[in-house]
Automatic annotation (TrEMBL):
<comment type="similarity">
    <text>Belongs to the ABC transporter superfamily.</text>
</comment>
<feature type="region of interest" description="Disordered">
    <location>
        <begin position="1"/>
        <end position="26"/>
    </location>
</feature>
<dbReference type="GO" id="GO:0055085">
    <property type="term" value="P:transmembrane transport"/>
</dbReference>
<dbReference type="Pfam" id="PF08352">
    <property type="entry name" value="oligo_HPY"/>
</dbReference>
<feature type="domain" description="ABC transporter">
    <location>
        <begin position="29"/>
        <end position="274"/>
    </location>
</feature>
<dbReference type="InterPro" id="IPR050319">
    <property type="entry name" value="ABC_transp_ATP-bind"/>
</dbReference>
<keyword id="KW-0067">ATP-binding</keyword>
<dbReference type="Pfam" id="PF00005">
    <property type="entry name" value="ABC_tran"/>
</dbReference>
<dbReference type="InterPro" id="IPR027417">
    <property type="entry name" value="P-loop_NTPase"/>
</dbReference>
<dbReference type="InterPro" id="IPR003593">
    <property type="entry name" value="AAA+_ATPase"/>
</dbReference>
<dbReference type="GO" id="GO:0016887">
    <property type="term" value="F:ATP hydrolysis activity"/>
</dbReference>
<protein>
    <submittedName>
        <fullName>Peptide ABC transporter ATP-binding protein</fullName>
    </submittedName>
</protein>
<dbReference type="InterPro" id="IPR013563">
    <property type="entry name" value="Oligopep_ABC_C"/>
</dbReference>
<dbReference type="GO" id="GO:0015833">
    <property type="term" value="P:peptide transport"/>
</dbReference>
<dbReference type="InterPro" id="IPR003439">
    <property type="entry name" value="ABC_transporter-like_ATP-bd"/>
</dbReference>
<dbReference type="InterPro" id="IPR017871">
    <property type="entry name" value="ABC_transporter-like_CS"/>
</dbReference>
<dbReference type="GO" id="GO:0005524">
    <property type="term" value="F:ATP binding"/>
</dbReference>
Amino acid sequence: MTTTRTSPSSSASPPPAPRAPHHDAAPLLSVHDLTVTYPGKRGRSAPIRAVDGVGFDIAAGETLGLVGESGCGKSTTGRAIVRLLEPTSGSITFEGRDIGHLTQRALRPLRRHVQMVFQDPHASLNPRQTVARIIADPLLAQGTPADEARRRAAELMDLVGLIPEHLDRYPHAFSGGQAQRIGIARALATRPRLIVADEPVSALDVSVQAQIVNLMADLQRELGLAYLFIAHDLSVVKRVCDRVAVMYLGRIVETGPKERVYAAPAHPYTRALLSAVPLPDPVAERTRERITLPGDPPSPATPPPGCPFHPRCPKAQTVCRTELPALKPSAPGAARRVACHFPEAG
């Protein structure tokens, strides 16, 4: 088994504070009213609106956590942003340019600036290619000479805590955590400004998750990266993100600074999610309120009328069953926004 080079990023200590995001400047990424619809099976089912009017901004150097249950549209949102999926409607503006509907040819020069880290590290690496080729591929696609691309691959192996001498090995020789480091190195090859990380630690052992989280925080601080960090584990999101956006059935139901959202969630769904996060204090863990939601999330093929959360919401009233709540500030001038007719105060 290939070993990992010892580095500060490999420890399980809390991640260092990321570089302060530049909120006063124009957003690095701005997503507005993004919709992604999958066609239904021929004549047998309705189209599935996996993402339904999603919008958010990410500043340079910032991390936005996108959280929610499986099937809520998180990964579809991320893949649409990097254009692995075609948006049905809406806009995706990167550095002031709408990239949501560019042709693949027009998009190619911009791909170096927006890269992706995938959930399953081994599934995302070609088993027939060496690590050198895997990391160098984005550079070769951009026209970088082969010898220069290999030198860059060696630099990146060292940067992510792997031994550069192992460049000519194949993915099967690496553990899951090491394979994810290779995936991160590949994403960094073209010196991107934004990385979409789709559940980057959920397929890894708990003992390895902290190492990858710390590595990503170190890289953000060193390189000034912005992250869209997609996850369902709210404890991980709390460690790495500046702001949080909570998705339910293809829509964002609450978004804001993580301190505000975690301390006093305004949407009933956010409150239920946070009530399931384990607490380190055993006394607090035994005595706190746990919120159990009835039933399962509705199918995106047949969403309920009104608020999509109302069939499971303990606070639902008549208006919730007929009117879709807008995502709006929880108070005048507040940084937090919530889509609820009866949000919690706080």
